[in-house]
Amino acid sequence: RETQNGSDYLQADETRIQVLKEDGKKAQSDKWMWVTRGGPPGKPSVLFEYDPSRGGQVPVRLLDDFQGILQADGYSGYGQVCRENKLTRIGCWDHARRKFVDASRAAPAKGKKGPPSKADVALSHIRKLYAVEKAANELSDAERYRVRQEKSLPLLNAFKAWLEKNASKVLKGSLTRKAMDYTLSQWDTLVGYCERGDLQISNVLAENAIRPFAVGRMAWLFADTTQGANASATCYSLIETAKANNLEPSAYIHHVLKHIAEADTLEKLETLLPWNAELPASKKVAQYD
C-alpha cells in the first residue's frame, strides 16, 4: 500500500460482502470490500481491503499518506479523506451514464416518429464524450489533454447548459430528474478528467478490478468469518495486481509460492512483487472491459 499511495492518482470503489460472524453485526447485514487501484508508473496495484463499515473513516485509513487525485463515484464516504488530505476529487461518467440508462429503460415506449426522451437526449450527449475518448485512446497523455481541451470541454459545456435548461421541466422524483440532478450536483468532479491527459473519464479501472469479486460472490455467497473475508481480500489483491501488470495470475501465484520460503529479507520479498517478478508478460490476461 505504501507503493500505491506514493502515486498521485488513485481510483476507489467498494462493494458489499456478507460475513456471517462479525462482532456486533447481524449475519444478514452488509459489510464491505473496498478496492483501490493505481500506483506509480510501471507499478500498478489493485488492493482489496475488508471492513465491516462503509463509513468515511475507512478511506481515511486506507489513504492515510496519499496525496493527489482520487477518482470515485458520488458516494459521500470519500469526502472526509478528500478534505483531510486535501485531495483533488474527480468523478465517474460511467456512474452518471447508468442513471440515464435506467431512466431511458423505464420511460414509456414511443413510436419511431416520436421525440426522444430527455434521458435519451442526455445519453446522446454522453456518447459524444466517450467518442472523443475512444478516438484519443492511442494518443500520448499530452495529446489527449489537448484533444480534451479542444473537443471535450465544449461538449461538456453544451451538455451542462442543456441540463440546466431542462431539469426544471422534468417531474421531481422521476428517474430522469434524479439522473439530471445527480449529474449537475457532481459536475465539478465529472469535468475533472479534462485537467490531465492521463486521467480516466470514469472509474473503470477500479470497477473492472472489483467485478470478478462481485461475479464470484454469486457463487460463494458469503464469508464465514472476518479472517475469511481478509483472506479473500489478499487473494483478490494478488490476482488483480498480477493482471494489472499483464502477468498470468496462476503463473504468478505459482512463482510466489515457489520462492516465498526463501524470502527472508524485505529486499527478497520485494523481488516477488508483480512488477519485479521475472515472468514473461502475457498479452492474453483476462480482463473485464
Automatic annotation (TrEMBL):
Cross-referenced InterPro entries: IS66_C (IPR039552), Transposase-related (IPR052344), Transposase_IS66_central (IPR004291)
Domain named Transposase IS66 central: residues: 7-230
Designated name of the protein: IS66 family transposase
Domain Transposase IS66 C-terminal: 237-275
Classification via NCBIfam families: transpos_IS66
Pfam family, one: DDE_Tnp_IS66
